[in-house]
Inverse folding.
């Protein structure tokens, strides 16, 4: 299956430094169209399109917007999540670099739909180099054109701030610790006001949906996952980069046909917390129900160690845990200790059992998605490559 | 300990010049960032000063400063080198790049040169792995870095002293 560019429609076509170029390619037409509709009509169109959040969880966007629009508050807010911290993802950066106006237009339509006057774009600190261009583009566009004000907020380096409630804490100028939920952001979000928070890529789908209609959108993709997904492909491939394909495309088409992987042993889909798919299952379709996350795809060839992969992933979570809850703060340290012991060939078979048991406990007892998903790669590599673990046990 | 307490009570020197435009609690994080940039670090005096200026406790400021990896207490090097160590960069040899930075600068991961010119930290994915391995120096990004490029890149930021080459 070839690439299908909806989200990346303007990348490489529109000059990201020229609003004239954006206008010449149909820019702001969808926003004008949306303004002629009532906010609720916009919400219903997005709801009917079946669009689901691209930040990892796949929550229905229209439903989120409806909840926020109907929720009473002194002000409503839209947040664009550009924290992009998942290991191996850079598709949001690619969009911010290549199509800032398209993103602003999507944000503006979201503001119209839920009755927000202010939107925040939360940019990870690592993307500070994009700030100048973004601010220039925002200034050039102007609040009058957008019908709302978009403010850029920079992070300060914390993976967990990509999690929506932690991100709101961070915009409020605090430590980025996850909140206990419920309440959820559509009811009590930023400053406890009704808030819609969406990933960059999610918001990039809004313009084409408004322009071409929900019926058109539903013809692309697969069943409960309409539309396309932008994947960031890295690792042992000839052509790393961002690829946009319809949902339901087989993993093999993405990594072998498009990115040029050879001699594949396994593919981790979804970043450090992603699922590990062995080569025998490369026909897995890419949907929220199978594997996905935010679409980081790391290809590992036959020379790579799966225990090492799991160790690197757990190291990441041990460092990025915000420390608020015990199973995550302590659990990741213990996982790491067990994995390191095995790698040093001083582990016992019981250590492998302990890895399994602790992983299960963390998945059900951690407060936020970081801790709940941290053991994923341990569980998957144990399932598909268990021999590698047992071969490391001290004899 | 006694010295630190004295430092905490001293009137922060920057207080009157930088305090005005940031008044909302929401701007505290970006304000701490600004102070760190202007003062090349955050001393306990700075932390206490910020707390007084914003009407929050010093522990709250400290809590924020220690939470985020782009903030931190203590002095900061003039040039901050970050080498990505996440899996996609690892698969493309980031270990060799990190080792070369260590060798050229004569510091280990997490270290700061004695004269405060350079610091090195290995970090998690910085979203530049379409061309791995990636490193940043201050706010500049370098992709597809080979160990052989390291010296050239770093020398753009000033004379390099203290590394193994210098000693040899
Ligand atoms: C630990 C953690 C990190 C996350 N990081 C991001 C991120 O970097 N970018 C993002 O868009 N969503 C991230 N999310 C998901 C957000 O919490 C949230 O679901 C998302 O921004 C909602 O937008 P969407 O519905 O458009 O996907 C993260 C979630 C967790 C638990
Ligand atoms: S699961 Fe981890 S990151 Fe999430 S709240 Fe608990 S300690 Fe913090
Ligand atoms: S893994 Fe190094 S930049 Fe993403």
């Amino acid at each position: 299956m070839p690439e299908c560019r909806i989200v990346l429609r303007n990348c490489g076509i529109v000059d990201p430094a020229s609003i004239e170029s954006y206008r010449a390619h149909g820019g702001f037409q969808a926003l004008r169209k949306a303004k002629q509709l009532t906010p609720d009509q916009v919400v219903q169109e997005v709801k009917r399109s079946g669009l689901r959040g691209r930040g990892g969880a796949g929550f229905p966007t229209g439903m989120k917007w409806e909840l926020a629009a109907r929720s009473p508050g002194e002000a409503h807010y839209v947040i664009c999540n550009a924290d992009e911290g998942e290991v191996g993802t850079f598709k949001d950066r690619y969009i911010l670099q290549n199509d800032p106006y398209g993103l602003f237009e999507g944000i503006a339509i979201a503001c119209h739909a839920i009755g927000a006057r202010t939107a925040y774009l939360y940019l990870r600190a690592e993307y500070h180099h994009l700030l100048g261009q973004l601010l220039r583009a925002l200034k050039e566009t102007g609040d009058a054109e957008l019908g709302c004000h978009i403010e850029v907020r920079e992070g300060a380096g914390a993976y967990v701030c990509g999690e929506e409630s932690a991100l709101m804490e961070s915009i409020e100028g605090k430590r980025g610790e996850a909140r206990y939920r419920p309440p959820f952001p559509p009811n009590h979000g930023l400053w406890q006001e009704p808030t819609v928070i969406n990933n960059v890529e999610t918001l990039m789908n809004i313009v084409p949906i408004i322009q071409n209609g929900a019926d058109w959108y539903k013809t692309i993709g697969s069943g409960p996952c309409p539309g396309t997904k932008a994947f960031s492909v890295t690792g042992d491939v000839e052509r790393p980069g961002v690829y946009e394909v319809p949902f339901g495309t087989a993993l093999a088409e993405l990594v072998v046909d498009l990115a040029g992987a050879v001699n594949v042993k396994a593919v981790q889909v979804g970043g450090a917390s992603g699922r590990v798919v062995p080569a025998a299952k490369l026909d897995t379709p890419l949907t929220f129900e199978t594997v996905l996350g935010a679409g980081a795809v790391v290809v590992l060839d036959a020379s790579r160690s799966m225990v090492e992969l799991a160790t690197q992933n757990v190291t990441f979570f041990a460092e990025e845990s915000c420390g608020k809850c015990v199973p995550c703060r302590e659990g990741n340290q213990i996982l790491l200790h067990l994995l390191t012991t095995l790698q040093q060939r001083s582990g016992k078979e019981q250590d492998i059992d302990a890895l399994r048991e602790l992983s299960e406990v963390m998945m059900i007892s951690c407060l936020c998605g970081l801790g709940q998903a941290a053991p994923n790669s341990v569980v998957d590599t144990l399932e598909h490559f268990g021999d590698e673990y047992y071969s490391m046990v001290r004899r | 300990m006694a010295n630190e307490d004295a430092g905490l009570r001293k009137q922060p020197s920057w207080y009157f010049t930088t305090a005005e435009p940031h008044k909302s609690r929401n701007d505290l994080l970006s304000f701490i960032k600004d102070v760190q940039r202007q003062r090349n670090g955050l001393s306990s005096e700075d932390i206490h000063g910020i707390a007084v200026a914003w009407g929050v406790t010093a522990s709250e400021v400290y809590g924020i400063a220690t939470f985020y990896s782009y903030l931190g207490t203590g002095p900061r090097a003039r040039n901050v080198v970050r080498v990505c160590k996440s899996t996609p960069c690892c698969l493309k040899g980031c270990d060799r790049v990190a080792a070369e930075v260590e060798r050229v600068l004569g510091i280990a991961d997490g270290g700061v040169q004695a004269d405060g010119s350079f610091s090195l930290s290995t970090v998690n994915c910085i979203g530049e792995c379409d061309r791995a391995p990636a490193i940043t120096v201050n706010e500049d990004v370098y992709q597809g870095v080979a160990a052989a490029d390291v010296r050239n890149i770093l020398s753009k930021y000033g004379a390099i002293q203290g590394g193994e080459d210098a000693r040899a």
About this structure: The CA atoms of residues 329 and 388 of chain A lie 27 Å apart. Residues A 87-88; B 84, 86, 88-89, 125-129, 132, 134 surround FE2/S2 (inorganic) cluster (ligand 3) (CB under 6 Å). Chain A has three domains: 19-217, 221-301, 306-394. Chain A touches chain B through 50 residues (CB under 8 Å).
